[in-house]
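Sat 14:20. Reprocessing the chain from the morning session after the first attempt stalled halfway. Input below, unchanged.
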Amino acid sequence: MITKRIIPCLDVRDGRVVKGVNFEGLSDVSSPVTLGKYYSDCGADELVFYDITASAEGRSLFTDILREVASTIFIPLTVGGGINTVADFDRVLQCGADKVSVNSGAIRNPSLIPEAAKKYGSQCVVLSVDIKRVDGSFHVFAKGGREDTGMDALDWIVRGVENGAGEIVVNSIDTDGVRGGFDLPMLAAICERVNVPVIASGGAGCIEHFTTLFKTLPRVDAGLAASIFHFGQVKIPELKTALAAQGIPMRLH
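Finished this time. Tokens:
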């Protein structure tokens, strides 16, 4: 049976890890290098590194700090933020990333996904989608959750997978940072539409939220979180042990 993955997320701004609520009100947490090594050492299955203001500020992703993070960890690394061209893929992969996450760049240029998948393989292309309910529909938001594109999120995700995205990260803006649990209805709707790995992001507040996620939606492959790991409310070894005890397949050290 394929093991479920636990993935901490480093939201990086100006070279520091930050965390907010509903994508707003960012506060400083730590150095991405220090945190990345900590998560690699304590049993995280993968690590996600987002340069969260690169797209909004219209600049390239910081590569010096990324290179340093990549050199200190021994788990797969997914990198996103300001990825607008295949050349951007090349740049972060050369810095040590294993997978590249696209969001606003793919909205602006939908051909980015098929071009990157053709060059690097689908397993390298992660489509990250920031989703919020608008009048009862799931809308795609761009620029770090700042801008409603008006696009239907389910249709956009299906299109991304058809174009070659090998994995989907579903960021629920409605539940982000609130710690009230993952957005199960949104995730269920997405799992029904695609056959690639789906990573749930936004809303984790305790161990039970991960248990509920994997028990309720066995098709979800991974749970991603930030603040509960950063601030020590949930420790990854304890989380994985608890999930394994509930019969959820985990990679344990």
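The chain has a mean pLDDT of 93.
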